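User: Modeling request: complex.
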Amino acid sequence: MSARRVRIRGALSLGAAAIFSITLAAAVAPQTPAKPTPTADQIVARYVAARGGLEKIRSIQTLREKGRLTAGADRQALVTRELKRPSRSRFEITVQGVTGVFVSDGQRGWRMSPFDGDTEPTALPAEVVSEAAEQADIEGPLVDWKAKGHQIEMAGRETIDGHDAYKIKLTLKSGAVRYEYIDTKTMYRVRTDSTRQVHGQPLQIKMTFGDYKKTSGTIFPHQIDIAAAGRPQTMHVVVDTVEVNPPLAEDRFAMAVPAQP
Amino acid sequence: MRKSPWLLLLLPAFAFADDVFLKGGAVFSGRIVNQTETMITIDIGDGQVGVAMTRVDHIVKGRSPLDVYDERAGKLASGDAAGWRSLGEWAAKQSLSAQSRQAYQKVLATVPGDPEARQALGFVLVDGHWLTEEESYRARGFVKYDGEWMTPAEAQMAQASADATQARQEAETRANQAEADKILAESRAAKAEARAQQAEARDTWGTPVYMGGWGYGVNAWPYPGQVTTWPAYQPPPQAGQ
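Assistant: Request completed. Predicted assembly structure:
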């Protein structure tokens, strides 16, 4: 199989402009008593409330989102993401009429990716299953972070695409570190920074969230931009539909039986 | 199961395609152009793909977005830039990249500077000139490595990592080849293990694209038109072998 390989690309250039903005803002700030900076715990509590509240968020047992993914010219896909407590996830991507499936039940995972020449299910490597389980956290890692074994700490404030944002350092139970940026006004998450290994090298990934809309009392981002530091191309996800608590049979997340030769 | 023609008339024009569902959940959607007891061939609009019938779970026949595209395209005059632009946008939303590209190229044939068509085809406006995506990246100092644009330093590190991985895999393969051949010939279980090893070999290189908290799985931007037959075509043994 000789499919061309084009992975995530692109980079958001925050750099000098953002730093200049912060510096300028500090220089011209009025001499009024500064408000005490809230603690990370307080920020997360306000973030949870802004999303719709703990009760609403906890009531989400299943979730299905459908949308479109673009990664530059000639690279359009239809995508569907299904999540179910606990830790079930199913991701489908369709390109030019061909649909691949990636599934995890939190313990095991498998894929069926015709793009890679697969016509039968193959097991996902352990590190991908681990990543899938983290992504299958239907409410996100900040909700009930303490009970999940994660750690948070305040890491300052930054301007993200014109939004003044709190920066929270999130250390997952697995040890992976992310930085979550919460808009100081809306208290919505505007960006997540993480690091992952690609080609054996650490690669910084920035995900920007926007176009928040409410479904069943909870807000969801409908635009997600994904970029990697040092890469010129970006990946855009536009979420067209969000379904809260759709019926998702357990067998959608079960390990498929490999075909017999 | 074939739907009644009368029923099809009542359905939205783009609601159905010939959908070939594989055991395990993957789907090919397009136009079935040939079907035998052993193989089914589907036109996905950017080439044809063949799939062994042993892998097929079920087939749902219907009207394809490709049919809709052809029908709409057939009604457009070649100089109807607005019509082709609209069709290109529609095709992109169906993830029919080949058809979208074709439609936008029709737009450019009539309006060479059409910004929407230029951008859809990947052109970037630099100092009043439309550059291709590749030209714009090169101008910014990026290099292409294994289909990805990145900094030269990252490409160098990626190549070093790939070389090391390949060398290790080749050494392992050589060491295990004789024994693996024997086992593969003896039992089905060994074949399954071999498939798993192949998958693992792919995964060590093809780290899945990270889609943030939104999705995971694909390890490269898929170009289904690049692959014409699943499973991979096996040439018949030649005389004397």
